[in-house]
């Protein structure tokens, strides 16, 4: 199984474990990537808790703010 397939399988397991909430698909995928990459790096990590998503870093917050600003500008232009 390649890395992509392994991440997909873990993401689906997380999706099911979290009650099949479709709007959390990105959270499930990112958590799965972190789990699989840690496995391959030989690190020991804990599975994410059901109620918490991945931690937002300062860089991630900048990206989110940037995307929101871009979306607002596109709406204003339309």
Structure write-up:
Helices cover 67% and strands 0% of the residues. With 78 residues, it is mainly α.
Features:
extended; 78 residues; mainly alpha; 3 helices; 0% strand
In short, what is this structure?
With about 80 residues, this protein is an all-alpha fold. Helices cover about 65% and strands about 0% of the residues. Helix 1 (about 5-15) crosses helix 2.
Elements, N to C (H/E)? HHH
Give a quick account of the main beta sheet: strands, pairing sense, barrel closure: none
Count the helices. How many? 3
Number of self-contained structural domains: 1
Amino-to-carboxy terminus distance: 45 Å
> Helix coverage percent of residues?
55-70%
Task: Count all strands and give the number.
Answer: 0
How would you summarize the topology of this molecule?
Blueprint lengths: L2 H15 L7 H17 L16 H20 L1
Helix pairs in contact: 1-2
